Amino acid sequence: MKRGVWFGLAIMAVVVLLVAVLMPAPAEMTRGHLGLLMLALIVVAIMLGFPTAFTLMGMGMFFGWLAFDYDTQKVLDLMVQRTFLVMTNDVLISIPLFVFMGYVVERANIIDKLFRSLHLALSEVPGSLAVATLVTCAIFATATGIVGAVVTLMGLLAFPAMLRHGYSVRLSAGAITAGGCLGILIPPSIMLIVYGATAGVSVVKLYAGAFLPGLMLTALYIGYVIVLAKLRPDLAPPLSEAEKRVPAPAWAEALMRDGRSLPIGLAAAALSPRGHPGAPQGEVWKMLIVAVLPLATAVLVMGMSYWGFAERATQLDAEPDLPTAIQPLGEATSGTAEPAPRAPGGLQEPPAESGLEQEQAGEPQPLGGVQEPAAEDKPQELTGGGMALDPAEAGGAPQALGVQAPPAAAGQGQDAATEPHTGWQIPVAVIAVVLAAILVWFYWFLDWKHLEVGWMLLTSFFPLTVLILAVLGTIVFGLATPSEAAAIGSVGGILLALAYRQLTWGRMKESVFLTARTSAMVCWLFVGSSIFAAAFALLGGQALVEQWVLSLNLTPIQFMLLSQVIIFLLGWPLEWTEIIVIFMPIFIPLLAHFDIDPLFFGLLVALNLQTAFLSPPVAMAAFYLKGVAPPEVTLNQIFVGMLPFMGLQLVALALLYAFPEIGLWLPNYLYK
Amino acid sequence: MQRLLLFVDEVSAYVGKAFAWLILALTFGITYEVMSRYLFNAPTSWAFDASYMMYGTLFMMAGAYTLSRNGHVRGDVLYGFFPPRLQAGLDLLLYLVFFIPGVVALIWAGTDFAEYSWGIREHSSVSADGPPLYPFKTIIPIAGALLLAQGLVEIVRCAVCLRRGEWPSRERDVEEVDVDELKKMVSFDDREIELAAQALREREQTK
Questions:
Q1: Is the dihedral of CA B77, A524, B155, A73 positive or negative?
Q2: Same domain flag for B151 and B186
Q3: Does residue B99 sit in the same domain as residue B25?
Q4: pTM of the shown model
Q5: Same domain, B41 and B67
Q6: B173 touches chain A (CB under 8 A)
Q7: Mutation target vs B (from A38, A43, A54; most B CBs, 10 A cutoff)
Q8: Which of A48, A480, A513 minimises the CB distance to B174?
Q9: What is the residue range of B108's domain?
Q10: What are the distances in angstroms from CA A7 to CA A228, A542, A618, B139, B175?
Q11: Distance CA A183, CA A364 (A)
């Protein structure tokens, strides 16, 4: 046997001995001590390598029996109740669905195309191959959440490519292993569901909270690679010109030779009835779509911003109406029976129509502002109302002026009355000019490579990103529960696989069977741990731990640091599932004493457990990469390569700790 | 002997795989429910019950299948380095100490639980006309029994390994990370690795 094994066994023996020494004599042993004994034993038992779910179940049953004073029936009831609770848990139900989505997407063979298109698209960036690797990993790992598969696939696709381009072994290995683990943090991740189910924190909030920290970590990785490649080009040499180029087919060259720009040539070729000689019509249309897309996007952005600003302006214009509407009502002793005080303005139209009129006067936005209660929230807008009241003796006058005047005059009339709100045309104009400039610049430099890469991105990067964002968006904006979004995401994944013609019966079967096994693994662990946790609580172990921690008189910061260090250390011998389901129930009740938000704590834990995937010597990612790497690459090189990325994870952890807003801003903004 | 082991494996796998297909029903069922809620404005009252029942049945019945493929998470920091005999010895001990009592208790308790539910013809109380709960509760003893059978087979495996010093073979099944399959999927050419290795060697020489 290796020396390491003896070392490990010795540590376990020491733990058992320590427990035996520290425990009071059996006679004075309270139930709380039994609980602590149980906790120490479970760590040792897990290290022995028996399937954790059943270790927890068996030990939970035994100690539960002690806690119930040897009442067998009560323990049996407890076990089955706990099991049934897991079976009907409406949070855990999303686990098989997200796992299924991951397997389906993984088997759609998108990653190959994704990496190649990103590699070409990013060819100008320093360290482009490593950056493309990280971006590919971030997207693919987020969609699938399967660390092993992502690292293996990237080890096949990106690792040889990077080595052949003269990238350093360490940087290449670090980028792949670090990138492959991003899916654990970036939602929709299984880890956050497990935490949410254990800690009783809303998964929706966790997803909203983990989104920005996940992006931040990705950005840190990418920034590090770019800076390193800039400073030390020998570690990540730039691609040669030949590698950056994408050769245009002959017909495309011919299109451009006529002196026309590429888009116009494409359009002409697409629209001419006979097509262009030698140009396959399908290809032409494909490229034309890509060429037109930026223009369409620009128009859309323009329309949206125009609409947005105009709406804002009409709201601002409309707001003074409410106070003025109230004012006459206050004076309503004058005896007007009409509820609509706009009548004094001498208007024939009912108020609803005045809105319509104004819409025609240049603002393409249905004017609901008059009735909007939002106006009540902004009493400061009263100043506008005051101004409006001055020139006209009755309330609705400025409004009326605007309604009756033709568009040009309306502008003037509003200028006089509500000057501050007409400024909205200026930013819109600025946006228009900027967009136009970008478009001109874009089409000026547009060449074949852009179109080709654009098409590749359109068929690999965008579908996956849209799938992820759609799943996340429906959850975060409350349109669907996580399980519903996961189901829709799985259907999306199936459609994606269909679209890529990768959905075979065999792959479907594999995905289904793997889903069953992974779900059974996680959920049986929950069955075991909930029995265990119940016994622990019954014995009063929890109370003893609480007493002890409180007696330490820690400040919240000290407690936070201590707990994160403990979790980090546990990440070495244990899997994240075990850490969360066994140890979170002990930490979570303590949070209230220190006034720590369990949501925030969860984000820190998720980020923290990420580092466990990269910390030698147990980092699984390294072994997966080693499995497909050339024999010249040693495990040590991979470990050393992971270290800087692990450092960045600690930086991210510190940043999140120092600025909790990174994680809490989005959930607070959305749900408070 | 080996044939008996593989037979039980096969039964576990067959049941697990059969119930695994529930994931498709779950996926499309929930999707349909969301669509009917948003598009036709007609939510189904039993959708919630149906979905957790499918989820619960799915993972409970896959427990034995997962065990037969050695798929339950285990702390393998040390375990992985143990020689097979020590692995088998520890496993055997812990199967007898934790697994057998735990699962037997689960079957026992689950039988009472389901029996009671059958006795009162229990229906779900999530909605007014909730579906019956007793078949769902019966899943607990059934899944437990399958797990127990598989556990006994695993114990025999441990004994065989203790005697022979190597683990008896298991049936091959789809793996989460199957390098050969993944290579085939991305149509990977093994010369790529050779080229990369060559590049590495050249770099070593120029240094």
A1: positive
A2: no
A3: yes
A4: 0.81
A5: yes
A6: yes
A7: A54
A8: A513
A9: 2-175
A10: 38, 31, 15, 43, 32
A11: 43
Give residue A173's pLDDT: 94
Q: CB–CB of B196 and A46 under 8 A?
A: no
Q: Hey, which residues 29-48 in chain B have their CB within 8 Å of chain A? A: 29-31, 33-34, 48
Q: Using CA atoms, how far apart are residues A651 and A596, in angstroms rounded to an integer?
A: 21
CB contact under 8 A, B139 and A631: no
**Chain A 58-87, residues with CB within 8 Å of chain B CB atoms:** 58-62, 75-77, 79-80, 83-84, 86-87
Question: Which residues are bridge partners to A51 per DSSP?
Answer: B74
Task: Quote the mean pLDDT of chain A.
Answer: 79
Same domain for B183 and B171: no
Given a contact cutoff of 8 angstroms between Cβ atoms, the answer to whether B199 and B37 are in contact is no
Quick one: how far is CA A82 from the chain centroid?
32
Number of domains in chain B: 2
| Torsion sign (Cα): A307, A309, A311, A317 | negative
Q: Please report where in the chains the tokens 């403990």 appear, as a residue.
A: A566
Residues B206, B158 share a domain: no
Comparing alpha-carbon positions, the chain A residue that sits nearest to B84 is A1
Distance of CA A653 to the CA centre of its chain: 17
Chain B: nearest CA to A431, how far in angstroms?
36
Q: Give pairs for A651-655: CB < 8 Å, separation 24+.
A: A651/A220, A652/A213, A652/A216, A652/A217, A652/A220, A652/A607, A653/A564, A653/A604, A653/A607, A653/A608, A653/A611, A655/A216
> According to the model, what pLDDT value does residue A364 have?
41
pLDDT digits (tens, 9 = 90+) for B5-53: 888 889 999 999 999 999 999 999 999 998 888 888 777 778 888 999 9
- Locate the chain A residue with the closest alpha carbon to B175: A514
**C-alpha–C-alpha distance, residues B89 and B71, integer Å:** 19
Q: Is A656 left (phi over 0), alpha (psi -120 to 50) or beta?
A: alpha
Three-state helix/strand/coil letters over A105-124: HHCCCCHHHHHHHHHHHCCC
- One domain, residues B30 and B102: yes
Compute CA distances A399 → A22, A317, A320, A341, whole Å.
82, 9, 10, 12
Report pLDDT digits (tens) over A550-563: 888 888 889 998 99
| Class of residue B138 by CB neighbours under 10 A (exposed 0-12, middle 13-18, buried 19+) | middle
CB nearest B59 (choices: A96, A480, A514): A96
Does residue B49 sit in the same domain as residue B139? Answer: yes
Q: Integer distance in angstroms from the first to the last C-alpha of chain A?
A: 58
| Burial per residue of A507-539, b for 16 or more beta-carbon CB atoms within 10 angstroms, e otherwise | bbebbbbbbbbbbbbbbbbbbbbbbbbbbbbbb
B51 contact A CB<8A: yes
**Closest of A540, A536, A580 to residue A59, by C-alpha:** A536
> Which among A490, A516, A629 has the least Cβ separation from residue B27?
A490
Residue among A83, A112, A165 with most chain B CBs within 10 A, to mutate: A83
Give which of A38, A42, A48 to mutate to test B binding, by max B Cβ within 10 Å.
A48
What is the Cα–Cα distance from A308 to A291, expressed in whole angstroms? 27
State the Cα–Cα distance between residues A605 and A54, nearest whole angstrom: 25
Q: Are residues B75 and B159 in the same domain?
A: yes
Q: Residue B194: list chain A partners with CB under 8 A.
A: 630
Lookup: tokens for A649: 């994870």
Which residues in chain B touch residue A156, judged by CB atoms under 8 angstroms apart? 182-183, 186, 188, 192
Cross-chain Cβ contact A160/B196 below 8 Å: yes
Q: How far apart are the first and last CA of chain B?
A: 59
Q: A249: cis peptide before it, omega within 30°? A: no
Residues of B in contact with A129 (CB under 8 A): none
Which tens digits make up the pLDDT trace of B159-193?
Answer: 999 999 888 888 778 888 888 888 888 888 888 88
